[in-house]
UniProtKB/TrEMBL annotation:
One of its GO terms (biological process) is SRP-dependent cotranslational protein targeting to membrane. Belongs to the SRP72 family. InterPro entries: Signal_recog_part_SRP72_RNA-bd, SRP72, SRP72_TPR-like, TPR-like_helical_dom_sf, TPR_rpt. This is Signal recognition particle subunit SRP72. Residues 99-154 form a coiled coil. Keywords: Acetylation, Coiled coil, Cytoplasm, Endoplasmic reticulum, Isopeptide bond, Phosphoprotein, Repeat, Ribonucleoprotein, Signal recognition particle, TPR repeat, Ubl conjugation. Gene3D superfamilies: Tetratricopeptide repeat domain. Residues 565-575, 667-683 have a biased composition (Basic residues). TPR repeats lie at residues 231-264. GO terms for cellular component: cytosol; endoplasmic reticulum; signal recognition particle, endoplasmic reticulum targeting. GO terms for molecular function: 7S RNA binding; ribosome binding.
Amino acid sequence: KMAAAAAAGGAGAAAAPALWSEVNRCGQNGDFARALKSVNKILQISKDDVTALQCKVVCLIQNGNFKEALGVINTHTKVLTSDVIAFEKAYCEYRLNRIENALKTIQSASQQTDKLKELYGQVLYRLERYDDCLAAYRDLIRNSQDEYEEERKTNLSAVVAAQSTWEKVMPEDLGLREATYELCYNSACALIGQGKLNEAMKKLQKAEELCRQSLSEDSDVTEEDIEAELAIIHGQMAYIMQLQGRTEDALQLYNQIIKLKPTDVGLLAVIANNIITINKDQNVFDSKKKVKLTNAEGVEHKLSKKQLQAIEFNKALLAMYTNQADQCRKLSASLQSQSPEHLLPVLIQAAQLCREKQHAKAVGLLQDFADQHPVNAAEIKLTMAQLKIAQGSVTKACMILRSIEELQHKPGMVSALVTMYSHEEDIDSAIEVFTQAIQWYQQFQASQARGADPKSPVHLSLIREAANFKLKHGRKKEAISDLEELWKQNPKDVHTLAQLISAYSLVDPEKAKVLSKHLPSSDTMSLKVDVDALENSHGATYVRKKAGKLTGDNQQKEQGQGEVKKKKKKKKGKLPKNYDPKVTPDPERWLPMRERSYYRGRKKGKKKDQVGKGTQGSTTAGSSELDASRTASSPPTSPRPGSAAAVSATSNVIPPRHQKPAGAPATKKKQQQKKKKGAKGGW
């Protein structure tokens, strides 16, 4: 287009042929910066030259100056009409993320060229209008034959993958040959949307292999470049591992991708978000670091609305886990204003209130949401019931659960209500729950066509559970009607008949006798058992052998041998070396030497006996008795231990802790010597 525009300009601007030649040459060489300079010189000569203005817009687009290019278009609207410059204007708006404006520009164009159709498909994809986008690409593939057919098929498969992932639409088989790693990757994404995780993993492995093969053919591509290109494939592999519960493997692969520092901010944001979901309320410090990656510039233009919404939800939860109550409330309120019908924002707000011990306020918040959005009332009321149970208000929780009309007849709900009422010993309410559920199924079956099966498994199961519950709690008469209904539905059910006879035997014995006639005879109920096989089984053989040991003439001999064997198993205790069997053992041998009655202390003359025990500086009874200076003639300097009368009678006696004991310098000297010899051992 650049060369054609330059040639036309050369014909119309004879005054500047050299400039147009320069523009033409630079355009063919891809040097759009120099071409732009020449175009500006031409515009100085003729400022309203349409061809020159078109060339300038193209040069600015090629240089990445989309905002400036759009400014040139908007400034010269009289000259650059929509018919002339529609594609360039729409493309600039698309690259500036003004998607709605780009759509309007494309739709307002008088002629839909192939370029505009290509751009139209991209715009529809960004707007998440996948059905229209799919139709646009099908039309392009059907009516185009050029070297870009593979790229169009890749885009078509991306649309199908997005439908499967975000709209849960079953993708149709497009018959695309998965010859490139992009097509394999998109096919794997579609399989993930369907929940076929194992098949998706195989597709991703194939995509990785194809990617390595195609990139390794280029000698200029390094291993780092290959790993960077594989990052998005590895990210999906880690996501599959996370869905399969292999969180450790997924976390390891996520961190490997982050270490590569890929330039795709959308990929980094998704990986960081997934790591936060794995951490949950643990490893909060790591989550706070990872959440910064989700705030990178341009992330909002790289991800879908549901992806961005999920990231915001996790930010609010992380704020709650990190005790940032104000931040949590702010984020959840913002989410609720964006999606008023969504459950998660109000649930996060209720959870935050519960963490602040404001359970009543949380229940009120949930009740208001349930009143405003009846469609989502069931999930909200289940949460309200859970909060009531946590507060210990089981009866109120039961009232909330019974107000959920669409779940009243469900077996799980019936079981939960009966269990809770039984815990509260409210048997009448529990029986009422059973009765309402049974009546619902009866009305449902009556409303069905005549060919409907009256013996619904759920219906009969509820009747049986109700009968068992009533029998357990002594409601025999009420249980009899349920058992009769069951027996009526299946007269060959011996178990139900036996229960019915057992219940009647306590209420109406005559009726029990009449019903007992319907029981099958013992001959028909005899079990076909192979007695020989039963006796030869392992358990029976063991019992028979064990019993046979105690029978026969050698019974006493066997018992005697058994006793001998037991005695042999006992290990003899070790005896002291100086053990004398004739001497009676010391009865106090188990006591420490100091606690024995015959202990008289150690021999005199040993230095260890002179070491005092107790607090530092105190004297002992032994040292006082051996001190020659402490005779009867000399008054004692301190009361003897155990002399209570001396302590109470003498008020001016210096306590032992404050005295300076005799020989204190020598004691201190000995202690210092012992400290020096500390490495050789203690006392």
